Amino acid sequence: MIEIQGLTKKYRVRGLLPKTALDAVSLTVRKGEVFGFLGPNGAGKTSLIKILVGLMTPDSGTAKIMGIDSHLREAKFKLGYLPESPYFHKFLTAQEFLNFHGRLVGLTSDQLYTRVPTLLEKVGLAKSRKQKLKTFSKGMLQRIGFAQALLHDPEVLILDEPMSGLDPVGRREVRDIINQIAMTGKTIFFSTHIIHDVEVICSSVAFITNGKLKGFGNIEDLLGKTVSSMEIRYSLPYSRAPEVSELKESRKTMDGWVIDIESPAEKLEQEVNAVLTSIISQKGTVRSVVPRKNSLEDLFFAGTDASV
Q1: Which 3 state secondary structure label does DSSP give 215?
Q2: What are the CA-CA distances from residue 5 to residues 69, 77, 141, 305 (Å)?
Q3: Backbone phi, psi, residue 107, to 5°
Q4: Cα 81 from Cα 273, distance rounded (Å)
Q5: Is residue 306 within 8 Å of 205, Cβ to Cβ?
Q6: DSSP 8-state symbol, 126
Q7: 3 state DSSP class of 53
Q8: What pLDDT, on the 0 to 100 scale, is given for residue 219?
Q9: Confidence band for 228, pLDDT divided at 50, 70 and 90
Q10: Statement to judge: residues 207 and 253 lie in one domain
Q11: CATH number at residue 251
Q12: 43 has which bridge partners?
């Protein structure tokens, strides 16, 4: 649905060296994915999105929407777009706003008659359809932005920092809308610098820093590759201290002992078995064995170059 190959973009400012916003970025987004584009502010996320929606041309490389170059008019009709800081016609009501933008994308009066109420209901603004946008909260404006992006029923939805500046309630509302849209089978690509948003919404993720792609792939696969620690809780008779070498790193708790085993994935099982054997040899009781996966935050700050 989205294919990016070798995308490079530099900004040139008179008197200064060119700033590289995107450095040979390549990634693919499959049909039906909710794809998170994760990176700090200034990493190049918005530059890539502007190229995807045809607002900017790259210095080199290609970006395609459903096999069509993103700068072509045909590609623009395949996608819906919600920018980070959209400007809305504040003196229009929600219904008037959607009717106006529906006309811009070529919808007929009959299509708008059925489409607009359905979208207002979907984003939770049915009761506010006659309310002027200047009275909307930030969260309500984001929701009407989603409705506008979905007017022509696009296959691909591109969102630039859709939860930026929202309070916890607004963030939850926007996440729920994204999840509802994803259930319809649409492909969603959104940028963010909030790691938690990606963890709770996305099926795939790409990491970008200083214009360079650090890694991308399916979230479960990426996190599955990083299982490198195990927590074992156990108790010993008579509250004695661990005596064998495998247990020397244990720490005391109120109800026994805990040991954390950190090791490369290929060696982890062997080391866990050795610890369990040592506990049993001291007539101890194993209370729990809990694997620990790294989080997306761990992956991001570790500079993972994984791709699947």
Answers
A1: strand
A2: 11, 21, 34, 17
A3: -80, 145
A4: 52
A5: no
A6: G
A7: coil
A8: 78
A9: low
A10: no
A11: 3.30.70
A12: none
* Single-letter amino acid, residue 233: R
Q: Which of 178, 208, 223 is the endpoint of a domain?
A: 223
pLDDT over 60 at 66, yes or no = yes
The more confidently predicted of residues 44 and 13 is 44
Residues 72, 108, single domain; the answer is yes
* Global pTM value: 0.75
Paired tokens of 95: 């219904």
Query: Is residue 214 domain-shared with residue 261, that is, in the same domain?
Result: no
**Alpha-helix residue ranges (DSSP H) falling in 30-108:** 45-52, 73-76, 94-104
Instruction: Return the pLDDT at 27.
Output: 92
Note whether 170 and 163 are within 8 A (CB). Answer: yes
Neighbours of 298 (CB within 10 A): 14
Q: How far is CA 287 from the centre of its chain?
A: 36
Helix (H, G, I), strand (E, B) or coil at 289: strand
Least confident of 44-58, 79-93, 245-259: 245-259
Burial of 154 (0-12, 13-18, 19+ CB in 10 A): buried
Q: Which of 7-16, 87-96, 168-177 tops mean pLDDT?
A: 87-96
Domain-ending residue, one of 223, 239, 254 = 223
| Separation of alpha carbons 170 and 174, rounded Å | 6
| pLDDT, position 40 | 84
Max Cα distance, the chain (Å)? 81
| Whether pLDDT at 13 is above 80 | no
Q: Which residue has the tokens 């200064």?
A: 16
| CA-atom Rg of the chain in angstroms | 25
What is the helix (H) or strand (E) element at residue 188, kind and residue range?
Answer: strand 187-192
**How many domains are contained in the chain?**
2
